[in-house]
Every structure is written in structure tokens, then in C-alpha cells.
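Objective 1b: paired records.
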Amino acid sequence: MPALGEDVIEATVSRWLKQVGDRIAAGEPLVEISTGKVAFEVPADTSGHLREIRIPAGTTVPAGSVIALIEPSVAVPS
């Protein structure tokens, strides 16, 4: 869960846009979250495969919480 500003201390995971095992590119929308005022998509911060979703949709968590794990892509030497 990204830092959301000084006055926002928690947010709710509204829905996951990717599922475990999906390939994700850095910057691609990963999850939709909502605060009391706004809903928005959060992009992946790295490329790889979504390894684990730690926080299910409908759950409210503190800003800065780990909500998922992305296994980085490993370049294959040629």
C-alpha cells in the first residue's frame, strides 16, 4: 500500500486487477484501493510475476502495509 499523503492513514483494497501467477510490468495497474474520499488504481512498482496477495479485497489496512509480493523477472543470459 503506497504512502497516500499526510492525512490518509489507511485505505481499503477494493479489487485486485491481477491474480496470483499473472505477469506484471512495472507501472501496470495492479490493484484498486479506496480511501474515504477517492478510489484509484495503484501501479506495480516492479516487473515480474504476482507471487502472493496478502490482503484480500474488502480489507482496510494502514498506509505503507505490504499487500502483495511480486517476484522480479530474471534476465536470462544469452
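Objective 1b, second protein:
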Amino acid sequence: MTTVITICDTCKCDGWEAGSEQTDGETLASLVEAAANGVDGVATRRHSCLMGCSGACNVTLQAPGKMAYTLGRFTPDAEAAQGIVDYAAKHAQADTGVVPFREWPQAIKGHFVTRHPPLD
């Protein structure tokens, strides 16, 4: 089953300057899309505003019938993007979407904001 990573493309971290070429969310989205390219069971999409502005940059991980997660407070860099994709791949492989803590990539530890049970 495919896990979808939704990346907020309007996120702006503290220190972002108006007039910058792109938002921090757009930067993270590009990096996550590149890291997810060709990864089985992982898809990406962008969405404008996940309403987690105080904890930018934000992403969600979702798949039908599985626990869903919101993660945030990322620096928009390659390490964060790879950690997000690595976790999404494990989420896709887990029957319930719950990945044991010992399997979490270091780059996503401390970035969980919420989790939501699947809809029936």
C-alpha cells in the first residue's frame, strides 16, 4: 500500500525573508520529491498550508487504513528529506502504519506533532 507524503509548500521557518525566491516549504518539497523518486510504496504531493505555521516545515504521512502522522519543525535540507522518505517507506511496509521507535530514522526523531487513527 502506498504512503503519501503531503508537504506544506507555504511553510516559512523563522528567519525566512520576504522576497526570497521560494518558501522553505517549497525547498523541502523539492528535496522530499527527489528523495522519494523511485521508492516503492511512497508518493508525494504538495499542499498549501497545513496550518502548522509555528512549527514549519510540516509534512503528513497517510495511507488508507493506517495511522496517519503530522511531522514538523524541520530544517529544509537533504538530511530531513531523506529521513522523511525513509520513515514513509517503513510506514508503507507496516500493516498498521506504526513503525517501532528503534526503526525510526534519526532525522525524524523529535519531529512528530500529531498522530491520527485511520478512518473506518
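The first strand starts at residue 3 and ends at 8. Residues 15-58+76-108 form one domain.
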